[in-house]
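Exercise (ungraded).
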Amino acid sequence: MNDAAPRRNSVRVDALLGANTAACILISVLACSSTVAPSRIGMFMALFVLASALDVFRLRRPPRLVINIISVGLLIWAVRSLRYRDVDNVITTFTGAIVLLLGIKLFEEKSGRNYVQILGLSLLALLGAAVVAYDESMIYYYFLLSLLSGIEFVLISWHERQPRAVLPARAALRAMGGGVAIWAAMLPICLAFFFLAPRPQAMTQLSQAGGDSTFSGFSDHVTLGSVKEIQLSDKIAYRAETQMIQPDMLYWRGMTLEAFNGLTWRQIQRNVYRGPFRPDGAAVTQKILMEPGHHRVYFALDKPLRVESENVFMIGDGNFLNTNSRGSGRLDYTAISIVSPSMTPLNPDINRRVYLGLPEGFMPDIEKIAAGITYGKSDREKADAIMAYLAPPAFAYSLDDLPVSENPLAEFIFSSRKGNCEFFATAMAVMLRFAGVPSRLVAGYMGGEYNASGGYYIVSQADAHVWVEAWNGESQSWERHDPTPSAASGGRVAAAKYNFMSFYIDAINFRVSRLFLDYDGESRWEAIDGFRRALGNSGSFLMENKGEIFLSLGKIAAFFASALAAFFLFAAAKKLRHGTKNSEMALLDDFLRIMKRKGYGKKTCDGLEEFVSSIESGNLVLLSAGKPEERRERDEIAALARAFVLRFEEFYFRDVSIDRDSETELRSMLEKIKKYA
Amino acid sequence: MYSFDVKNETVLAIIRRLSPFLHGKNDALLRVLVCAFSGGHLLLEDLPGLGKTTMAIAAARVLGLRFGRVQCTNDLLPTDVTGLNIFKAEKGAFQFHPGPIFNNLVLVDEINRATPKTQSALLEAMGEEQVTIDGSTYRLAMPFMVIATQNPIEHSGTFPLPESQMDRFMMRVSIGYPDRDSEINILKAGSQRESIDGIVPVLSPEAVISLRKAIELETAVSDKILDYIMTITEMTRNHPQITAGISTRGAMVLLSCARCAAWMQGRAFVIPEDVKAFAPEILAHRMQMRGAARSGSSPEALEALSSILSEAPALG
């Protein structure tokens, strides 16, 4: 077994373990490669190559002290640029440090302890990478790493017993199959955790602030010319469970901004009458779950009629403020909207001074243009004319090279003609005001991806948008105009990043968040009801409605849950039988049970040797009425039992706990008795 | 009588050496040896003529022990057992003449014929391992062991041992009639008293003492065994038929005999079978039965004990 020269079709356990460990490390480093600084990855690769070379050429490992000094130095190097205020930076830095540690670990002695540590570090690195940059691929990395971990544990336990063991290929395959089985057995537990454990998503939702660039997202004011470029953030703003809406109606209203000082649009609290509007059209209900953050306003499809939540303050014109904006958790609410491009206030007496207000002497050049293109037209025609003026190809949508100057609006209209929605909307609103049409900006989101698996829209920060509402004097209503070139606006750019799989996972995630956020229990009941219906008509759910996929998933979850429950019950029963006993008690119980199954029950008053003797003498069972083969069987079982008993008593009556090898030996003795036919 | 396969070399040597004289009395010999190696005394209860004396002498020879003998009668005085001070005129002083008790192995024949006073002196010596005569204390020889015999049938002119004194005997054993083949062999061989004197000892007094210590120190006793012993003890105390159960001394004796049994079987640890091995001999005479005319190993006591042993769970 221990001969140094490996036979054909046989593998050395240590080699197998080394390869598997390397695979685990490489997977986690690969997963980190996009988040961790390239220098760390490069350093790791160098260490990896060096350690492999030491192994291949059988060179002496550096002494422990040297390893320790080098590792401390490397760790200091790795964390020297730590900016502790920036959570993402903290996590990436430490993930980088872990990657380096992994590299250093390769130089240490090959003991089970070290292998387990390497495995733990790999998982930690993967976790760090996933927290910073979660995407779909992380799930595949996780599956792969957990699968290899299962195999790794089997190999480690083998290696611990017999470090230089050489296994026939088939036995090795079987052992690795055992690892896969461990993994498969763990899956239901992991799924259970997935469903039950709270997830720290707030970690990823912290806003970033940067120098020259900023990330897209909603804000409660619009300021022109403050940043040069805007990056699209792929972070999710909220999910809204509702029916599918026509794409050109997908405007999510946040708040109206009516005061403009030349650079910044703000909402003003006084001097504006805001009131209810006429609900013309069908009402659409949305259940919205906002990601964690400080939420000042409630979003809903344009035009929101009602928002049902705690801490709602309705100020009219479809504005709903959150009076508890200090709270930073998720926000879960129901909104009812009239999906319509126009809003007719019940009181048509709008404050024209506010909606026509512009700074004193503000940009007469623009006033000229506006007057020129709108002369003698009705309100509606004026708006259309301005829209046409701002339309491409004369103006183009852009997120970079934004005008940054004293008067960014002038630069936008007269020279650069490139800008984002804020420039387009501001330009239009200002021109409308110059043309004598009351106007205001509406900040919110536009678009969103419909997740058919879950029946909801995913609205991301990249979908943040500003558009214009212009007063139509004839219809006495606010009409929505979106001067921003639609093909290029916000979310459209990032539309391709979702595929079916991520929708699927997101749908589960969404449901689970809902389930654990709604403490009124109603959603929980709905989910349970859904399970029941899905179980009821399992045949009919096939894809006719993608929403049903969730129900089928519920079925799978229910199956896993019941399997898990059965597993735990079985374990509990086994535990109950053994009580809280140690391994010798378990052995004794198993021995007595096996003997009983063979037809030899021990009397409680009998000692073990007495018991075996009673088998030999035939006092116990009288089934052996003289038939020689039966007597032989009895004698052979008694001999096996005696061998077991004599070995077992050595531990049991000496209060010596059984070491692993002896336990294996005793177990194999039991197996022999069990198999004796 | 319960028996087991002896595996200890010393014990095997003893048995081999005594085999020409044993004639089916192996089990009785085993018990004599257990008492010798656990530091206890033995009460042999049998009809006369069944080889009690032969057994005692043979055991003394093979263990290399000095043998002494007391034949009890109702006019036996305590000093006849312990010895006495005699005035030596030529020295002008009293000189102590040790009695037969100053031997390693003392055979006390028909102990129930001695008067309570003498019995008491004897039993006190057994318990204290020393005697006090005229104010001076004399230590007995070590090892010290008494094998007492009594006739279970004869009652007239006897003084039954008081219950409190029964406790001083480690075991109470009856040899019983030999089986037919053994008896035929005895008849063939005739009296062997002379050849017994020719037995070459296997041990010596010192060897016996060191063996006692070795057994005590080298045989491990698990808590499970102590638990088992206590279970048995408590069951005798709570048994409805038993007025006085096993004393703590009884439990200790049970344990040391179990150790010895384990050692004899070549084991370094005690198993429940060792506890049970000599339980009837150790325990039955220590229990007082409700309504029984006399103490000791009455059939009722043996029956109660066997019911206890068949109930006490051996593995906890």
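Further reading is listed at the end of the chapter. For now, observe: Chain A touches chain B through 15 residues (CB under 8 Å). The first strand of chain A starts at residue 10 and ends at 12.
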